[in-house]
Amino acid sequence: MIDLFSKENSYKIIETMSEGLMLINSSGRILYINKALEEMLQYTKEELIGKKCDILECDSCFGAKQKGKGKFCGLFQSGEVRALKCAFRRKDGSLVSVFKNAAILRDDAGNILAGVENLTDMSAIEEKDRVISFLKRHLHHEEGFQGLIGNTPMMRKLFDLTRSAAQSDSPAIIYGESGTGKELIASALHRLSSRRDKPYIKVNCAALNENLLESELFGHARGAFTGAQSDRVGRFEAADGGVIFLDEIGDMPPPLQTKLLRVLQEQEIERVGDHQPIPINVRIISATNKNLQKLIKEGLFREDLYYRIGVIPICTPSLRERKEDIPLLVETFIERTSLKTGKEIHGVSRETMELLVRYNWPGNVRELINVIEYAYVLCPGGLILPDHLPSHFAGHPKILNIPQVKSRINKAENERQRLLQALKAADGNKSEAARILGISRVTLWKRLKKHQIEINHTIDV
Length: 461
Prior knowledge:
Layout: H1 7-15, E1 20-24, E2 30-33, H2 35-41, H3 45-48, H4 75-78, E3 80-89, E4 95-106, E5 112-121, H5 123-138, E6 144-145, E7 148-149, H6 153-166, E8 172-175, H7 182-191, E9 200-204, H8 210-218, H9 235-238, E10 243-247, H10 254-266, E11 268-269, E12 278-279, E13 283-288, H11 292-297, H12 303-309, E14 312-315, H13 326-341, E15 345-348, H14 350-358, H15 364-378, E16 382-384, H16 391-394, H17 397-400, H18 411-425, H19 430-437, H20 441-450
Parallel strand pairs: 8-13, 8-14, 9-10, 10-13, 15-16
Antiparallel strand pairs: 1-2, 1-5, 3-4, 4-5, 6-7, 11-12
């Protein structure tokens, strides 16, 4: 019978192992290393055998931490080591990270023969971890700009305008619906500017009443009102040298609009309850989802302030205006969620993507993120299916219940019938009909003109 564990065979097994192996005695002197450990540490057997193991400067070695001549190997005190992450010093002075498992070898009588250490090189795994960490940090920059994702011409134009606007100190105003990324644009204007190392202060003008907002923006002097027991620095002072972002500026009360206009004109503020002017150097960026010109006509917004804050207007498009970006956005958000949770979702089915593209997205990108996170929870793995979407997708009549034309008429008539059905489902609203069909308003208009369809013709369909 062949002895697989003869001395000769055991030696061959040890020498062909991919993990490093080292034998040491109780005083920590190296008795043997295998070929894998030679390659890992860049020492030859002859250079290490007979030497004390502290030559390798293991950062977790018990013996290396002892002082005096009576050092002993900590392994012989603990009895074993399991999955200990540590680092060894190579011959060239560099460090190699390893996982160490160790045990004591004894003879039949229980006498100690040696300690054996099995060392797994973690360098490749740590490199992969670094790559994954890098991708996690920078994924939002892929196919996008400063956290904004998009490849459509209107998004590329937005990115270019933001880069240019960041080089100016003129007031900028960002227009757009909720969830379109106005705050990301404001942040980018700060990060890409010469003020990037100075404060970036955000204030939501809709979140506070007039008195609180005034105190928040301009600060107050001691005794200015009940409870003002000390001087308080406002947001404008806190932002000195940097940028202040006034979100939802359309909700700012008219009296504060007057004070803001003075800040823009004089570059100074006065704290509430104090008439001492305080000079400031602040770039003002504002944002709104409201029609300021309409507010001006209604007497709710100052026209002179409108022109002061809007030197550089920036418009963030709604998601329904750039539906070509939806597949890229979906892919990006799925990748982000996968990296964060470790759950393997490979994408969405064709039917799911069709639903996502046809949907109107009143909440824009923010709503899309929420939908993907919801579907991610319900999907067990693989592809996200329509059943994994929120219920308002599965039951949306204007998405699912427009019948396909099944008659064997020519293609032009087939297209005409689809247009008529969409217009009827949308009650004659062209924007809604375009959304239902998954096309732009311009494309819809061209097709209506091509087929000589008037809106009043849809009533009898």
